[in-house]
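Session log. Operator J.P. requested a structure for one protein chain; no other inputs attached. Running the standard single-chain path with token output.
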Amino acid sequence: MSTPNIRPTLTANQRRSQRILLSVPLRVSGKRVNGIAFVEHTKTLIVSAHGALLQLQEPVLQGQPLNLRNVVTGEEVACQVVDLNPGASRLAEIGVEFGQPNPRFWRVSFPPTDWTTRSPEAKRFASGPGATIPAAKEPAAKK
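Structure written below.
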């Protein structure tokens, strides 16, 4: 008799955290296969609490450790290459993942993990013809 897997499985459309299109200037550093250090300045295409998608000229390998330095804040974080894709331009698109989730590195607020475009909050703020911004509620009078 087998035990059923009680851990939820992520499907192709589920993410561990929301993704945001955001351009953050970065200084990426690491070591080439021959051990020589490299530094490249780039920017993010997409960010999440778990990492980012960015473009690099420097050839990297899946699993390669890198350091990202947020040029604006000076904060630095270690990450690992988890995805390599040829980009539309001559630059490769590189997916990197932090060792631990670090949403504060990007200095943005991510939606809660259970948020969707079908959430009541999203519907209240939907844009389009006739959409209105809800008025702030007055505090209840004390009795």
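Operator note: The beta strands are 20-21, 25-31, 37-48, 51-56, 65-70, 76-86, 92-98.
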